[in-house]
Amino acid sequence: MPAGDSAGAEARRQLALADAHANAAAEARAKAARFGIAELTERRTAATLAPLSGVGYHLLADRGWPGSRTAQVDLVVVGPGGVFIVDTKAWRDVSIQGDRVLRGQDDVTDDLLALADLGYAAEAEFAEVGLAPGEVRPVVVLAGRHGINERVGPVRIVGEKDALRHIASHGTRLTPAQVDSVLARALSYFPQVGASPPVNVAVPEPLVPSPAGSFEQEALLSEDEVQAALLEGILASPIEEWMSFLHPGQAKLVRRSFNGPARIRGSAGTGKTVVGLHRAAYLARTRPGTVLVTTFVRTLPGVMRQTLARLAPDVVDQVEFASAHRFALGLLKERGVTVNLQPQQARNAFERAWREVASDGALGRSSLERRYWEEEIDYVLKGRGITRFEQYADLTRTGRRHRLTVEQRRAVWALFEAYTRELRARRVHDYQDVILLADAELRRQPLDRYSAVVVDEAQDFSCAMVRMMHALVRDSTDGLTLIGDGQQSIYPGGYTLAEAGVSLAGRGVVLDINYRNTAEILAFASRMVDGDEFADIEGVVARGDVPGNVARTGPDPVIEQCVNRAERDRLVVGRVRSVTATVGTSAGDVGVLCVTAKGVERAADALRAAGFPVVLLSDYDGAPVDAVKVGTIKRAKGLEFKQVLLADVRADQLAGAEPPREDASRERWQLLRRELYVAMTRARDGLWLGVI
Ligand SMILES: Nc1ncnc2c1ncn2[C@@H]1O[C@H](COP(=O)(O)OP(=O)(O)OP(=O)(O)O)[C@@H](O)[C@H]1O
């Protein structure tokens, strides 16, 4: 080969090599630019959030993405406000429209899905130590942006300048010990990332330029802004422990999926409502639509709403709270169905029907009081929505101890017909009619508004109420959660879920740690229901759940024997005075509970006369108020107080008293004892009974 040819070939080879190097360099530069931007923005986010470490937060940077060999999590922040999984995005022309995120014209919502998925997985991981699911928050920080604070699905999107305030604003939700336990879990869950792989190119090792100088440019937040944001968080009123940190069993139950209606039960104070509220928040966060939380007592939903507003402020607007009747009335109004609820006129209608067809007949002559027959119609017939005698003729009257003859059933039916005629003639409805109308309306035209329904104190619901709630979600996955305790049933009659068309098929969970009462209070209260058998909604005769664990101890309950009512009033006032004199108990921590409305009136008058602020439970909406709460036991369902006083108990109603022999009286006696059990188990620290 001529010399000129060889020189030419070498020149081309060198040129080709130069091109290859140039291409490699261009590629490396482009890659470096991408990483450089990411590094820069991530560092800026870390720098922005760094002041949080002064108030108890830990910032874990560049941790491995669990389950991935290469992906990284920019920043995991663990502190008093919970866990924040932070991903920084250098997205410029980004806009948020409803539940979608757009970059220019492109929909990039799916880019957030990986972070959302990581959030779900991390929730499960941290539930193992008891962290409530809502305390794990995926956050996207938009580099260079400010004035943004939006939520897309479970992901919060904030501007770079808003990130510090956002995290600090969660205040103190975890104690230092809980932060430590979550941190330990985070350190193992988000693994440390190893060194980067060596640069693999056939060129001399490139010199890595120092991070872009612009990093130190203008501070994102001024010193004052940082201080203000941190202070706001520190001053935020602390939440109660169980709002963020649960028993691991509870935390896992909150997230557990059931492929149809499910039931959570457990004796008083075992955290059923707590789990129900967390579950409502969790369901609201993880699926579109509204979650309905419902219960029987009219005022309880308001109280629960107040609690959820502190527990899960991010989703409280996606959860609707309504008593069964409030819900039914709302539905009927929405559908244009006329309903005229007039409880007093309904009572008059019953009175008249009784006089006309029953007082001189089989019912009037029986040994049972009129009230028994009234309840038969109210709970056994209308509570189920029975409309034909054949349905009643051989009905198993669950929970009704007294057997009825065929003649008596016929007489009940005649009374029922007469009562119904009277109601129609007056154009009025009773409480049960409201539910039956709504139930019928839902059958006529279903309602698809709710993704889930959580029923608390489900044992108070009638069969028709359960059917109505079930109709809202049918057998959908996690649609219906019934929470309750048959031992706390205080209304006559019963039914089985099968009658309501609901099948649990084994989807039941029992909670068995009592968090509320001292062992002394619980032991005392349990004597009220010792050996009590009741008809459980799952169709079995149940004995009541007994908690396996009661964590706290305290003084024995106090029983004061009073000679008359005036003395009892004085002693009630004296007891309230002495418990509110102790450190840590104020008027708002005291509940004075009565069996009768008259008792409520007396106690409230006596306390007011002694200068105590009083709020009646019938007016209480859960907003913190430093006044003694006074009300009937029925109104106190689901509530709790540090100190409870029972102000109108009779000696013969207390433990040790012999149950009556006659079936109907025995049934009533047991209902009353369960009511007293409910009242006593409202007490966290102290229980007092004024007995005549
Ligand atoms: N994991 C927990 N850690 C600490 N306290 C808890 C926990 N779970 C529940 N509690 C406390 O126990 C109390 C009782 O819980 P909750 O009201 O949910 O019980 P419940 O089973 O619904 O009671 P009831 O049936 O008697 O109304 C709560 O107010 C809370 O103070």
From TrEMBL:
Keywords: ATP-binding, Helicase, Hydrolase, Isomerase, Nucleotide-binding. PROSITE patterns: UVRD_HELICASE_ATP_BIND (PS51198). It comes from the Bacteria. GO terms for molecular function: 3'-5' DNA helicase activity; ATP binding; DNA binding; hydrolase activity. It catalyses: Couples ATP hydrolysis with the unwinding of duplex DNA by translocating in the 3'-5' direction; ATP + H2O = ADP + phosphate + H(+). GO terms for biological process: recombinational repair. Pfam families: NERD, UvrD-helicase, UvrD_C. Residues 245-518 form the UvrD-like helicase ATP-binding domain. Transmembrane segments: none annotated. Gene3D superfamilies: 1.10.10.160, P-loop containing nucleotide triphosphate hydrolases. ATP binds at G266, S267, A268, G269, T270, G271, K272, T273. Its EC number is 5.6.2.4. InterPro entries: DExx_box_DNA_helicase_dom_sf (IPR013986), DNA_helicase_UvrD-like_C (IPR014017), DNA_helicase_UvrD/REP (IPR000212), NERD (IPR011528), P-loop_NTPase (IPR027417), UvrD-like_ATP-bd (IPR014016). The keyword Transmembrane does not apply. The keyword ATP-binding applies. PANTHER family: DNA 3'-5' HELICASE (PTHR11070:SF45), UVRD / RECB / PCRA DNA HELICASE FAMILY MEMBER (PTHR11070). Belongs to the helicase family. UvrD subfamily. This is DNA 3'-5' helicase. The lineage of its organism: Bacteria, Bacillati, Actinomycetota, Actinomycetes, Micrococcales.
